[in-house]
Each structure stands twice: as C-alpha cells, then as structure tokens.
Amino acid sequence: MNLFDGFKDPQLCRAVLEQIHAELDGELRFMEVCGTHTVSIFRSGVRSLLSDKIVHLSGPGCPVCVTHDSEVAAFLDLAEKNVIIATFGDLMRVPGPDKRTLKMAQAAGARVKVVYSPFDALKIAQDNPGDKVVFLGVGFETTAPAIAATMRVAREQGLANFSVLGFHKLVPPALEALAGDPELKVQAFLLPGHVSAIIGVRPYLFLAEKYGIPAVVGGFEPLDILQALHLFVTMRREGRAEVVNAYTRVVSDAGNTTALAVMDEVFAPTDALWRGIGLIPGSGLAIRDEYADHDAMRIFDLTLKDVPEIKGCRCGDVLKGKIGPNQCPLFGTACTPASPVGPCMVSTEGSCAAYYKYSV
Fold it and tell me: At residue 119, what are phi and psi to the nearest 5 degrees?
C-alpha cells in the first residue's frame, strides 16, 4: 500500500459521495481550474457518480489551451528563422494561422526539438555553441520557476546562445476575470494543486472576500475531489464562503518561497492575452531587463500580431465554462484528437480531449 491508496479507497469515496448527495440543497456549479483535475475527474469515474444537480465546468487550467493564437503565430514566425527551437511536445500540434503547426514547420525543415525539461534545452545550447537555441515557455506558475532557474544558469555559464520565448500565465488574475463574469455564475472553484504548491493559498483569498465564492485547493485523487465537493456543499449549507486548503500534504499557505524567489528574479507581472478570454491585466510574466540577453522576443525582434480566430472553434467558450466541449459544433466531427482544430483537443489536459477520450 502506498501513500495514495487511501485517497482511492472505494468505501471512503462512497461514504463521502453519500454525504454530498444527502446534504446537497440545490444545483451546485463548480469549476475545476487545473487540466490535471479535468482528466482525474473523468478517469476516476467521479463525474459519472455525481448527481445531475452538480454541474462540472472545466476552466482555463490547460497551459496549451490558453496560449493565445497570436502567441502560437510568434512561435511559427520564430521557426522561420535560423534557430533551434526546443519545446514541450504538446505545442507541436497546436494550430496557428492557416492551421499551420510547429510539426508542419518541422516537416518543412525548421529545426524544432521536443524536450521534457527546460534544462534539456539548455543542454542543446551547450552542445551547439554555434547555434541559437530558443525554449518556448508556456504554462502557469508551475513551470515558470524551473524556466527562470534555467535562465539563471544560462547567465551564470555565459551561454549567450540560449534564450526563452515566454508567454507564461498567472492563475489568480484569470480567476478574478471569471469570478467577475456575470454570465458564468460559478458557485465554487476547485483550485489547482500544482499551481498552489508554488503560490500557496493566500493569492486566492479574494474569491471568498470579494466575490463570496467558496474555493478549495484540492489534490488529484478521487477522495481529494469528493472531499472538496463536500466542503462546497457544507459551506453553502452553513452560509459561509472560505478558501480552504484541503491539499496540505503538498501545499502550504505560503507556497514554495524558493520557487517564488527565482521566478520573481527573472520575471515581472505584465498584461497577457488568454485564448477565449482576451487581455487580462497583470496575468502574464515578462522577462525582466536584467535578463534581456536571454529574451527571445527582444533578440529576434518578434511582435504579437492580430490573428483571426479559428473558424467554428469554440475553445474560448469551453475554457470559460460557458459551454461543454460536446456543445461545440466541431466536437467529434471536424475536431478529434487525431485531427484537432483547436488546442483544447490537442493537449492531454484539454477538456475537449478528455470529453472525447472518455466518451462523455
């Protein structure tokens, strides 16, 4: 028996599920913010066990899915320059303008390499001193510290041929945009465990204090998710809204101060574009002037251009929880995992891919 077995125990899960259903006093619309939660809710079967009064919405927690069309276009522009691009595999199949992808660019001769860590990209730069190597940085507070640490190492080693094209996003500003959207009507947020391990719990307190929305930092096992739902039901029944850390085995209230420090050393908050949501003030990370020598945006004089949205794709509405993936007219027909039209069908953490895989 390992540490996680207890969080999958069928009897415990059944007991909590019965409590949820016994205490439920009306429709509960909750949004999970993390792509890993999306997959876990489907894979564990939790979704199929819930009352139809519990409405599950998938939020903007998939890093590839929220990468804006103009940012994908910048990746493709970079691929046309004489550089080595290092990227996580999920970005390879994300459609950009004219449905072009990095995979197509690679087939046409662009030097694009899939890596599993930003430090793999650093190794490529070390092994190819005559080439410029650019790592594509996307994602949330979860990945930003490791990329920041990589840039610090590159500077310490004098690796002038290594840079980052970074479009990181910050989760709390996006939650504020969603919480303030009167059309969305989210009644509770299941907060991302991975991001919370870095930033802690305090950055979410505004959800309860300003908007009166309860929120729970939850783990990814079935019992974690059910316990979070039970907390939502309990708080509503008792007429209170709080931000609760139910993932204390991983998340502390203050977060990971070492990771936050390196992230702050390299990046500064900036406005950012989110697919489907648009510009959210203070929701991105820009590379500080002190690291300009490793900022691909400046080195290669790249800009974000206006890019027409993909015709018919409703990934934006899916990311905001306004529709379910299977309500998109392209879902399962023109858009499948084998031939994705939008990013939500590309990533393994995308809600469209999860809906398709688990045949919801």
Answer: -70, -25
